[in-house]
Amino acid sequence: MTAATTSTLLAGSAALSAYLNAKYHISKDLSYLYYQHRGQRYQDQLKRRNRINVWATFTENATQFANKECIWYSDPSIDPPTPHAYTWREAHDWACRYAEWFLGTGRVRPGDCVGFYLQNSQHFMFAWMGLLAIGCFPAMINYNLVGGALVHCVKIAECPLMLVDEEYSGRVLGNSELAALGVQVQVLDRPFEAQLATIKPRMPDAEYTKDANEKTKYALRYTSGTTGYPKAVMATTGRIYSRLAGQFSQMAIRPLKSDGTGDRWYICMPICHATAGSATLICMLMPATLCIGKKFSASRFWSEVRDSRSTVFTYVGEITRYLVALPPSPLDRQHSLRVGYGNGIRPDVWGRFQERFGVSEICEFYGSTEGGLSHLTLQKGDYLRNAVGHDGLIRRLQMRNAWVPVLVDAETNDIARDPNTGLAIRMPYEVGGELLFRLESQASFVGYYKNREATEKKFARNIIRRGDLFYRSGDSLKRTPDGKWSFLDRLGDTFRWKGENVSTAEVSEVLGRYPGVIDANVYGVAVPNHDGRAGCAALLLDPQLAKNFEINSLLRHARKDLPNFAVPLFLRIVPEAAMNATGVKQDKVQPRLEGVDPAKVRGDPLYVLRGDSYERFTAADWDGLSAARARL
User: Fold this and answer.
1) Which of 277, 293, 325, 491 is positioned for an S-S bond with 268, CB 3.0–4.6 A?
2) Quick one: which of 324, 299, 325, 298 has its CA closest to 546?
3) Nearest to 537 by CA among 487, 604, 486, 475
């Protein structure tokens, strides 16, 4: 064989290899499998060395990077806001003070849970690390919860002590049910901070954490509670260390170096929730500089990003939509953000956000607080934009019978079954359905803390064969032939109208692309003397365009991309977006209960679709429907 022939064969092989890789994304799948294996291997190595210990890792980082910046925080309640930076040594000293104080109360012993009813701050992290130092953990209670929901969360945690944000202390101190539980309450205010500052920082006895392992509890978290009171989920350290070496290494986050360089991670999402809470803990372990915003504010977001010199940020739900809705500014691209990490960015906003603000990478993940199902997509170009996950050929074959979309009854949410076999009706991936995740056993699912009934409801059996066991995600997803996953709807949000299933996410995306629509919250409403639920879209309009907003132009826009049965029958113009207890995700429950009864919508203008136009919907119209004098 001549040299020329060999060269030609090599060139041909290289071209074929490149073609197959581009078509089937082989290198991407191999990279995913590598990082998955790396995460497990890293955890196994730590386990053999008895080093799966968050406090020990934090202490090592504080020793190695003592004088480098650990936490940046700016308090907007101080006028003007004054940023504070804490070195790793200072952060570690504060954690030691908290550990000493917790033990000094006489209420907290190793293994106990302490309630955190706190907004974001540097002290949230100091107190968290201090608890881990003495073998304890926090209950991450959403500070937006009040009344029965708040009491419910405290009861589950059985916490003898609560740290409470000064701004919301009245909700706790004035709650007689909490008082009856005998919970000691400490308000996190400036006098308390001053008291802590007088404590000499001493390293807690290593005895408290000597038995730390992959099953050690590092936080009690709660679901967002869209279907009743929040459910609790226990988070353990094995999973966070696995993600550190797997998911977050895949994101190519740059750890802190001895010269002080490395990524700076801005987090203004509530740390009490899993997405932000996990990211803050990763910063303490990786290590990376954590930049904390007290809460999300569209008007403060970019100034805090610039002041903190952040390169990575965490998003949840709709915050990118509110950032895109800001008036254009010459400062839009004057920042250092490179990567956005989170979940829930909607397709109608994703591209606009990146193009306007110049954030080159979006790391969108799909998962849940309680579920073992997790998918990560690092999007750097147009191909994976809008995808909540992506599988190449290897992964598609590997997960063929592990991730299964099935048909679900839109009214009952029950899995549809084949009448002959009793097995689930499996849907084509291109069509989609509720995504089920195969489990080896019930122990594979962490479950809801002290809630066996709710845990059992997440299991589905006899799906593709007799005796199998699956986890119900509660979400409908579909996958394109080349492996791109997209979100369809949340189970319970999809509604049925005129014999057809309507995806609220799909309708929201279409309406959200129309100029002047900041937010479109779509849900099904009950209408007297009609079967099913009629579609209603609660629209938050851009104040600059609201006065001349053409509702019927919006109708024509919707009809271009939606089937007739999915075009909202009702529109409700709202002064502000309805958010659930997280403060960053749409609330469909309350608007759905209010429906389109003019007496319940607090004066919001209502419109009903009649023929080819939307017309005002009045109390007289509602009375006509109620008396069966009119039909839709």
Assistant:
1) 293
2) 325
3) 604
Mean pLDDT in consecutive groups of 10 residues from the start of the chain, 632 residues: 65 74 88 81 81 93 98 88 93 98 96 97 98 98 91 95 96 90 95 97 95 94 77 91 75 91 96 94 96 94 97 90 92 96 90 96 83 78 92 94 94 93 97 94 90 93 97 94 92 85 91 93 92 93 91 95 93 88 75 94 94 95 81 74
Give the Cβ contact number of residue 202 at 10 Å: 11
Q: How many CA atoms lie within 13 A of 609 on its CB side?
A: 21
- Dihedral-angle region of residue 532 (phi above 0 means left; psi in -120 to 50 means alpha; beta otherwise): left
Chain centroid to CA 236: 18
Strand order in the sheet with 534-541: 517-525, 534-541, 570-573, 606-610, 613-616
Decide whether 52-367 matches 390-490 in CATH topology. no
What pTM was computed for the model? 0.89
At 151 the pLDDT is: 94
Could you tell me the CA-to-CA distances from 9 to 13, 19, 20, 526 in Å, in that order? Answer: 6, 15, 16, 68
- Look at residues 534, 448, 434, 452 and name the one whose alpha carbon lies nearest to residue 492: 434
CATH code that applies to domain 390-490: 2.30.38.10
Yes or no: say if 242 and 471 are a contact pair by the CB < 8 Å rule: no
**pLDDT number for residue 8:** 66
Domain borders along the chain are 52-367, 390-490, 495-627
- The CATH class of the 495-627 domain is alpha beta
User: Quick one: CA dihedral 462, 468, 473, 479, positive or negative?
Assistant: negative
Closest CA to 272 of 121, 146, 133, 116: 116
| Separation of alpha carbons 555 and 570, rounded Å | 11
CATH superfamily membership of 52-367 = ANL, N-terminal domain (3.40.50.12780)
Please check whether residue 499 is in contact with residue 490, taking contact to mean a CB–CB distance below 8 angstroms: no
* Cα–Cα distances in angstroms (integers) from residue 484 to residues 154, 340, 395, in the given order: 41, 19, 12
Q: What are phi and psi of 236, to 5 degrees?
A: -120, 160
Q: What share of the chain is helix, strand, coil (3-state, %, to 5)?
A: 35, 25, 40
Query: If you count DSSP H runs as helices and E runs as strands, how many of each does the chain have, helices first?
Result: 22, 27
Cis previous bond, 287, omega within 30 = yes
Q: How far apart are CA 373 and CA 460, in angstroms?
A: 15
Type of residue at 255: P
Q: What tokens were used for 75?
A: 């308090």
DSSP track, 320-366: HHHHHTSPP-TTTT-S---EEEEE---HHHHHHHHHHH---EEEEEE
- Integer Rg of the chain from CA: 26
Confidence (pLDDT) at 370: 64
CB-based contact 250:35 (threshold 8 Å): yes
- Three-class SS of 423-449: CECECCCCCCEEEEEECCCHHHCCCCC
